[in-house]
Amino acid sequence: MRLFVSAQIMPQVAGGLLSVNPSPPQQAAIIAAVLAITIALATTIVIARRHRRRKMHRTYTKTECIDTLMQPPSDKPTDTAPPTNKKVTQSQQGDDMLMQRILDIMENTTQYCQPDFGVAQLTALVGSNINYVPRVIKAKLAMSVPQFINQYRIREAQRRMSDHEHYGNYTLQAIAQSVGFKSQNNFIAAFKRITGITPSLYLKRSRTTHPDQTTKNNSSDN
How far apart (Å, rounded) are the C-alpha atoms in residues 18 and 31? Predict the structure, then answer.
């Protein structure tokens, strides 16, 4: 306010000085001095107003932040559930679908009884990738592809050893070869690892459990 009044008085002061009838050079110097002082006062007024506005803005912002912090917490529950990973879900669905195709092949065909049946043949039957199939079997069943195939071969061997009508005359080596084992020793080792007993003991128990079939086979041989 004082600066504004001073700016208004300066022209009057300049007029008073000029009324003394100074010489022309003195008049020019007085006018220049008055103009310089007026410009300086006007600049000072503008700067002061800007400073005042900035100070008021900071005060308002600070007050607004304090009001926000003083507000009571909202009772509305916050959604903290992590976003669904669509890629992971799609990958799991793909693994489940592939595993189902693998089981369909193993349950509904006897392709695994072929001596050369392995990961390549299984991959071709399910229409997948040769690296993808072992990974899915390992993730779902915690076993390798050969272990997985041997599970089905031993199960089929058990079925055939119990079927005395059709396989009663088969030796253990013949049974092993019929379900895909190239070596009788590998067949015996896999059979014992999976069932807990040797194939010869299983066959003996099977004949004891089904004596009628054994007698029928012996009669037909005579």
Answer: 9
Residue 131, class by beta-carbon neighbours within 10 Å (0-12 exposed, 13-18 middle, 19+ buried)?
exposed
Specify burial of residue 60 (Cβ count, 10 A radius: 0-12, 13-18, 19+).
Answer: exposed
Query: Is residue 142 over pLDDT 70?
Result: yes
Q: Is 170 left (phi over 0), alpha (psi -120 to 50) or beta?
A: beta
Question: How many angstroms from the chain centroid is the CA of residue 108?
Answer: 34
Between 76 and 106, the higher pLDDT residue: 106
Instruction: Calculate the CA 206 to chain-centre distance.
Output: 50
